[in-house]
């Protein structure tokens, strides 16, 4: 208890959504600190990860936009900066000149291999104290929460169409009941 006689609130006392938000903020700060050592930002990193994982085929700019959930103009800026850092290369597709093909440069591939070791160490620290079974269960539960949040987001789509909040709730309740 503190001086006023109130029990001190812990992280575990907070609502689940707040806990997730706090974890996100802390993990983003850690990622940004780790990435800054490589001259990268958190928004650039998913592009490099996608390119590493998809080296076996020609990746288009459109595919990258869809994979990392950014709009085309945003992707252009991100790729410009990554290209300036000599981490990616953009080439016109030889078969269809309307498309840019994006790939890691040699320097980008080397940097991602080096960063991978740092991420493994950081990931291990993040789950320290959890057994393999607990990590699998945590991953399963987070996946469930994520899918629930995706459904919630989808149910908010009428808001974009201008439906009043009460009507949105009625639609969601009817949908959830299977009507």
Quick rundown:
Helices cover 63% and strands 7% of the residues. It has 8 helices and 3 strands, in the order ααβααββαααα.
In words, what does this structure look like?
- This protein has 179 residues and is mainly alpha-helical.
- It folds into 2 domains: 12-126, Winged helix-like DNA-binding domain superfamily/Winged helix DNA-binding domain (Arc Repressor Mutant, subunit A), CATH 1.10.10.10; 131-179, no CATH class.
- 63% of the residues lie in helices and 7% in strands.
- The chain contains 8 helices and 3 strands, in the order H-H-E-H-H-E-E-H-H-H-H.
- The longest helix has 24 residues, at 132-155.
- The radius of gyration is 22 Å and the shape is globular.
Topology:
Elements: H1 16-36, H2 45-53, E1 59-60, H3 61-68, H4 72-84, E2 88-92, E3 100-104, H5 106-126, H6 132-155, H7 157-160, H8 165-176
Antiparallel strand pairs: 1-3, 2-3
């Amino acid at each position: 208890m503190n001086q006023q006689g109130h029990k001190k609130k812990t992280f575990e006392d907070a609502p689940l959504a707040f806990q997730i938000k706090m974890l996100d903020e802390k993990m983003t700060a850690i990622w940004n600190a780790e990435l800054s050592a490589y001259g990268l930002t958190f928004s650039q990193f998913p592009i490099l990860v996608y390119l590493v994982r998809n080296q076996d085929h020609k990746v288009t700019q459109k595919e990258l936009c869809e994979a990392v959930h950014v709009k085309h103009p945003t992707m252009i800026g991100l790729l410009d900066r990554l290209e300036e850092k000599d981490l990616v290369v953009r080439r016109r597709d030889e078969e269809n000149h309307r498309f840019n093909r994006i790939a890691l440069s040699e320097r980008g591939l080397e940097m991602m291999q080096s960063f991978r070791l740092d991420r493994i160490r950081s990931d291990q620290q993040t789950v320290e104290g959890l057994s393999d079974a607990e990590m699998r269960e945590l991953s399963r539960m987070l996946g469930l929460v994520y899918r629930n949040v995706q459904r919630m987001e989808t149910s908010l789509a009428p808001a974009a169409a201008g439906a009043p909040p009460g009507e949105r709730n009625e639609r969601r309740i009817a949908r959830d009941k299977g009507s």
